Amino acid sequence: MRFALPLLLATVSTAACTPTLEAQAPAAAQAERLVAPILTTPDAVDSATFARPQVARVTHVDLDLALDFERKRVAGTATLDVLARADAGEIVLDSNGLVIDRVTDGQGRALAFEVGDRVEGKGEPVTVSLRTDEGQARQVVIHYAANPQANALQWLAPEQTAGGEHPFLFSQGQAILNRSWIPTQDSPGIRQTWRARITAPEPLDVVMSGVAQGEPEALGNGRRAFTFLMDKPVPPYLIAIAAGDIDFRAIGPRTGVWAEPEVLDRAHHEVADTEDMVEAAEELYGPYRWGRYDMIVLPPAFPYGGMENPVMTFLTPTFIAGDRSLTGLVAHELAHSWSGNLVTNAVWGDGWLNEGVTSYFENRIVEAIYGEKRARQEVALDYMAILDTLEEVGRDAPGTALHHPEGTDSAGSAIVYNKGAAFLRTLEREVGRERFDAWLRQWFDNHAFQPATSNMIYEDMRTNLARNAAEAERLMLREWIFEPGLPANVAKPDPAAFAAVDAASAAYAGQATIPAAATWRGWTSAERQRFLRQVPRDRTAQQLAALDRQLGLAATGNNEELFLWLDLALANRYAPAVPQAESFLAEVGRAKFVRPLFVTLMGEGDWGQAIARRIYAETRPGYHAVTRGSVDRVLGWEE
Ligand code: BES
Ligand code: ZN
């Protein structure tokens, strides 16, 4: 279904934009809450949820939870506002290991509920009866606890923090992990507003992906209560929490950063360009609609580089290089405030709508803040990754299409992120920046706070970007979105972007000439990464030692470069690098670094496999479920 009106936020009383649901008289407190529409076309049906939102859906979540670090338990209540068809009778929620004690309606009367069979990777449905003596319940209150093994949550021991004294907790919701700690309908197409009251032991602070309401309240029992509100409907994967010994420092009037006190100086210095980035982003694609833009730099166990939790981006500390060379990460998470958080993929098979559009937008912010040279180099690195993936899986592999129909997987992030971005870059080149930017801005505006699908953006491009049918053909829109490989009109990266490095790579491959230390230091990080990726894979120990000596690879403070060095070293069974690889893997939980290092080790026969198994036995307990899951598969590890 397509919606004609640009503004599709309605109060509950005018929820007619969800036509199959009966608009019910709102309770007083609900009256002004915004309800986003649900898409009803087959391509918008999310197979990863048990919910049946056309029958009954959650519109608002109110959490009242206590954090218990000793027992690794989050427990309390979730009060859900429900919009249901008159004949619904029940509502289906998602769970993954939640321990549900009882369910009541808003007045405290018991409601029957049933936990269904577990489906691997998806969790289990919780079906709650809405039947009461006075008609259908409009609120359900779930009294529950999350399992200590909840896969969204990571409880860090003090040793895993910079301070070493206090425990730490963070959540990671995307894609379908939040059902392990929040009993709601966990689907990106079912947007919900939310509020939370969280209690935590002193002196820990709590942050969430919503706006803090007032100061924390001391409860007199060694605990404090923190309240947060998200009054804009968001997909539930964007509800996030972190708690630890953290401090805040402002950057600009609406930007700031949280981190452990030990990390805050370095973190603050690294993200100092953030306020300018927000301004640049607004200049490009319209107002930032979320109020504040704050970030938290988490302990290194965080499994991703970054996560675009609204008003509170979560970041790995491994992007801190001291010279802001890896802050494309911040630009990326910020860009999600439009692509992903404002306009959201309705199903995970259309993840390129979030990640591909964001990667394009990220590069435009990088260009605005750091200039064309850095932006072009990052484009060229991304393009190389697309070609690598196509080479690896084949140009006709279905997973290389941007849109993945239900039940099929993408061939990896180079497709979803980089091919997605290359598509938009191609459109920009074809129609010109001015027209392209106007189109993308109207896409964000017209679909703000709503879900979207590949079919919707395809139709939108045909009507609002292409001037006529002939131009639509020339843009190759259908090929780009629905077909594998790389369409013929792809905008190629600037061949001169890496001229200097590529000459140096050739000299190294040919005459074993290592770049001079001063040359190396004068390069951008993208240039150094390009060089490291181009080092021939068959190095002797002597050659590796010479490279390290001249370029200071093992001593670099740039983790992207350190990762490439360690990977190169391990791929050549270079024993002197093993202890450092081991300490890196013990400290850093970022799957993008951890998994490939284990893959490399596992490819190095008995030598590498023995090292991989030994290291993993030590480091596995310190990894988030996301990282554990991905490395378990590499090592064939069974719990
Ligand atoms: N939203 C993603 C992280 C994510 C994707 C989590 C899919 C779960 C499922 C985030 O915005 C992201 O893309 N992070 C990248 C940043 C990079 C591309 C700049 C990362 O973590 O490396
Ligand atoms: Zn992203």
From TrEMBL:
InterPro entries: Aminopeptidase_N-like_N, Aminopeptidase_N-like_N_sf, ARM-type_fold, LTA4H_cat, M1_LTA-4_hydro/amino_C_sf, M1_LTA4H, Peptidase_M1, Peptidase_M1_C
PROSITE patterns: PROKAR_LIPOPROTEIN (PS51257)
GO molecular function: aminopeptidase activity
Sequence ranges assigned to domain Peptidase M1 leukotriene A4 hydrolase/aminopeptidase C-terminal in this UniProt record: 495-635
Coiled-coil residue windows: none
Main location as per UniProt: cytoplasm
Origin superkingdom: Bacteria
Keyword vocabulary terms for this entry: Aminopeptidase, Cytoplasm, Hydrolase, Metal-binding, Metalloprotease, Protease, Signal, Zinc
UniProt cross-references to SMART domains, sorted A to Z: Leuk-A4-hydro_C
Annotated signal peptide: 1-15
Pfam families in alphabetical order: Leuk-A4-hydro_C (PF09127), Peptidase_M1 (PF01433), Peptidase_M1_N (PF17900)
Catalytic activity reported: Release of an N-terminal amino acid, Xaa-|-Yaa- from a peptide, amide or arylamide. Xaa is preferably Ala, but may be most amino acids including Pro (slow action). When a terminal hydrophobic residue is followed by a prolyl residue, the two may be released as an intact Xaa-Pro dipeptide
EC number(s) on file: 3.4.11.2
Compartmental location: Cytoplasm
Cofactor: Zn(2+)
Enzyme class: hydrolase
Family label: Belongs to the peptidase M1 family.
Protein name listed in UniProt: Aminopeptidase N
Organism classification: Bacteria, Pseudomonadati, Pseudomonadota, Alphaproteobacteria, Sphingomonadales
